[in-house]
Amino acid sequence: MSFLHPSLRARMTLAVTCLILVLMVITGLVSLAFFEREYERSMTEQQSSVVRYLAGDVDATLTNIQEALLVNAQSLPDNILRNPQAAQEYLSSRTGLRRFFKNHLHLYGADGHLIATSAQHHHDISESIAGQPYFKQTIQQAKPVISDPTVHGHTKGSANIVFTAPVKDPDGHVVAVMTGSFNLYEKNPLSRYVTITLGKSGILRLISGNGQVLLHAKNARILQDVAQGAGPLVEKALRDGTATGRHFGMSNQVLIASLQRLKSVNWVLAASYPEEEVYARVATARHWFIVATLAGMAIAVVLVLVMMRLLTRPLSQLATHVATLPEKTGDARFIHLPVNGEIGNLTGAFNSMVQEIDQSTLALRNSEQRYRIVTEFTNDFTYWRRPDGSFEFISPACLEVTGYSREELFAQPSLMEEMIHPADRPMVDQMAAESGDPTNCNHEEIEYRIITKGGSTRWVRHNCRPIIDDNGTFLGRRGCRSDITERKQLADQVSHMVLHDLLTGLPNRSLFADRLFLATAQKDRNDRELTVVLFFGIDRFKLINDTLGHETGDRLLIMIAERLRKLLHPNDTLCRFGGDVFAFILPGRESRHEAVTMSYRILASLSDPFNPTGQQVTLSGSIGIAICPQDGSDAETLQKNAETAMYDAKRSGKNCFRFYAREMNAQAAEMLRLDNSMPLGLANGDFYLHYQPQLDLKNDTVIAVEALLRWRHPELGMIPPDRFIPLAEDSGFIIKLGEWVLRTACMQCAEWQKNGPAPLRIAINVSGRQFSEPDFVDMVAAALSDSGLAPELLELELTESLLISNEQQALQKLQLLKNMGIFLAIDDFGTGYSSLAYLKHFPLDRLKIDKSFINDILSDPDDAAITEAIIAMGHSLKLKVIAEGVETREQLVFLEDRSCDEIQGYFLSKPLSEHDLHVFVTARLANKAVEESSH
Fold first, then answer.
1. Which UniProt keywords are given for this protein, alphabetically ordered (predicted)?
2. Is the Cβ–Cβ distance between 483 and 400 less than 8 Å?
3. What SS3 class is residue 440?
């Protein structure tokens, strides 16, 4: 037999021998370790018992001393505090106490100054312990205190333990403190404990709460810190009451220590044994144990060698066949030995086994291939748990779903339950409880969250089924966790998108309706509270949107939403109702005043300019308020009434709020009727123009007219412009209406140019919506071309706010119009952002002073001063200045004296039809000719 290729017998012999040797070694080591551990435990318990007993004795000693001092303090006569001599005699007579306190007794006032002492020598009455922690604690808590070591006292340089007892007056106030102390370096009531020896060289130590040695067999160790290795044990004893463990002593000797915290004071009593002393007996036992184990191992080896030789000889041929079996195929895999008996039976059983193995191997290989395809190529985490909860099988997908590997789950099966999200755990536990039988997990699919190993939260769908064999035996549970996080997130996103505005993220109209319904339902249960609904619309937002672009408008809406969010209470709701309209639900309000306050806060939030694209934009808004139940008890009515109030606020001048009133419905209906009638009115010719003359004061000549739009409704009669113009602007119909005015006026002026008494320039008002249209310049050019009107006879009047809303765009359009030869004027000058900056910047020809200043120029000094300033400003920029709304001669004289260039108003003429204007101009020209001929 080759040493490098041992026989089966040799290998079996070696294997069995090694196994027995290993088992004997393990058994020996385990037994020895168990013996040593039990011995150490026994010694430690014994040591801990001794320390607990001694700690109780130390506690009793300290308590007796403290109670004795307290009894004497309580029996102190009331008047003795005012008589130091009597106090000293009282303290000197306390012979029972003085056997505890070698440093005498002392009595201190509540201010900490010494009153008396039991010592006979002279004492300093100015001595004070007011700063000592134990004195402060006694005064504050009115209870006895045992101090940590202190050098304060009459024995300088000593380490004293001070006992205090409060002296109280009949009302329970501390009026004095009695103290007694002893020196740790001298014999004292606790000295006897350090003389106790434990074993041969074990010692006791008393340790303070800050880790200083209070009592030790060696005085040199007193007030020294404990050995560095003992610090954690002291901290544990102070925290838990007791501690046991090893640590290095001051001489680097390993000590086994037991510590017990005292009950009367935050100190620790510690007992320490040298480890070598404790294990001296263990070392002897270990020696003999090893000798016995080695002898047994030698005997076992000999017995194995003999027995294996006898048993394995008949099996050599079978062993050789088994060794080469993997290389054999077909019939060669079966062995044929001419033997009977047990070896023959073994040979037959072996052949049957080979046949079954071959069949099982083939089936298993096919099954494994199918199972590998199922488990390795699926994203679901499948498992099989035994009845005790451990795992029989875990699929590879567990890592992807949970973050835990199969090895981690096999080692700690409880992770399956621990990873369930705390918020969903009650639901999972309830389903488990409802099943009643822990072996029954045949529940429906359940969806809940888990916390993966990485800390992320994922949604899973979990189903579980019991595994029962044919005999009804419960074999465990098989289950599957599928990751449905993405599907959940998608569903949440879809749900959020359905109920929220995509631009601002605010609740949309649908969610607003649901919450308003809930708010009104809750209102029914609490009649004392009000539910307030506010509709808030941005003023002139369509103009801003058209002027600055929709992208800028969207950014503005987002910025507005952010400001409005900051105004909400926790239970309030803010939604974007649509376009530039936001809506609030304010439940639980106590009065209308809170709605007013909220409205002012909303308007104030828009007062600071916005800067969406580097250009400041100033906004205002209009608010409508409806209150439940006064203005409606259902969501639909409240919503409709709040919106009606908002539009009333817009008609009232904007940048304000209005409470809903019943008459608003009639007004809103009328506005809706007018709004719907305008397109039909324009098609039917119900709109027409009147013309108001403008007079050159220098030449006393009518030089221009302003085209003014009028509407005669077939059923409602004449509709004032201030009623239908705002409606047209809000609806956008002003664009089509403005184009009609421009074309009609140009055609009429062209007719005057050909056949009229004199060529007149015609002035046309341009709205902000109309001017912001991209093709506005082209529309003007087309009107001039189609009518044949000379461009210098057309004047366009624009407002200040229109020009500064987007200066760059306005400048480009004005320059194109100016290049065509058209006159450009600022209408209602003085009411907006009047400044020299944009007057110099834009190619203007005329300023038109707003009639609100002209009305009171004779009675209001401020209006008069503003009018003079506008005239002077216009002339300084070489602009013509025209005053509108002139109704009296006195106003005319005032303007002439200030060198105003032109006037317009009822003093000259009211707005006239085309025919009346022709008569008026002809008459003026005739009168002027007569006057000139007479001169």
1. Membrane, Transmembrane, Transmembrane helix
2. yes
3. coil
Confidence of residue 428 (pLDDT cuts 50, 70, 90): confident
* Helix (H/G/I), strand (E/B), else coil: 227: coil
User: Can you give the C-alpha Rg of the chain in angstroms?
Assistant: 53
Helix 635-651 and helix 721-731: axis angle, to 10°?
Answer: 120
| pLDDT of the residue at 373 | 61
Tell me if residue 292 falls in helix, strand or coil.
helix
pLDDT given for residue 634 in this prediction:
87
- Tell whether the model's pLDDT for residue 58 goes beyond 90: no
Produce one character per residue of 35-63: b if its CB has 16 or more CB atoms within 10 Å, e if not.
eeeeebeebbeebbebbeebbeebbebbb
Strand partners, 533: 585, 626
Mean pLDDT over residues 425-444, rounded? 68
**What is the C-alpha separation between 779 and 26, in angstroms, rounded?**
105
- Concatenate the DSSP letters of all residues of 593-635 into one string: HHHHHHHHHHHHHTTSPB-SSSS-B---EEEEEEEETTT-SSH
Break the chain into its structural domains and give their ranges.
328-372, 378-484, 500-661, 689-933
pLDDT of residue 120: 59
CA distance 497 to 503: 10
Instruction: Kindly tell me the burial class for residue 200, based on how many C-beta atoms sit within 10 Å of its own C-beta (0-12, 13-18, 19 or more).
Output: exposed
Distances (CA, A) of 406 to 8, 246, 380, 450, 458: 38, 39, 14, 17, 18
The amino acid occupying position 626 is: A
Assigned superfamily of 689-933: EAL domain (3.20.20.450)
Pairing of strands 823-829, 794-799: parallel
Q: What CATH number matches the domain at 500-661, 3.30.450.20, 3.40.50.150, 3.40.1010.20, 3.30.70.270?
A: 3.30.70.270
Residue 861 burial (10 A CB sphere; 0-12, 13-18, 19+): exposed
**What class has domain 378-484?**
alpha beta
Instruction: Tell me the two tokens of residue 326.
Output: 């993997």
Alpha helices in 6-113 (DSSP H): 8-74, 84-92, 95-98
Query: Is residue 883 a contact partner of residue 902, using CB atoms and an 8 Å limit?
Result: yes
Mean pLDDT rounded to a whole number for the chain: 83
**Distance (Å, rounded) from C-alpha 474 to C-alpha 496?**
46
Which tens digits make up the pLDDT trace of 686-700?
999 999 999 999 988
Q: Are 65 and 163 in contact (CB under 8 A)?
A: yes
Cα distances (angstroms) measured from residue 730 to each of 735, 770, 771: 11, 12, 15
Residues composing the chain: 935
Query: Per residue in 398-417, is it b (16+ CB within 10 Å) or e — as a string?
Result: bbebbbbebeebeeebeebe
Residue 29, pLDDT above cutoff 70: yes
For the residues of 506-555, what is the DSSP string, one character each? -B-HHHHHHHHHHHHHHHHH-TTSEEEEEEEEETTHHHHHHHH-HHHHHH
- 766/775 Cα distance (integer angstroms): 14
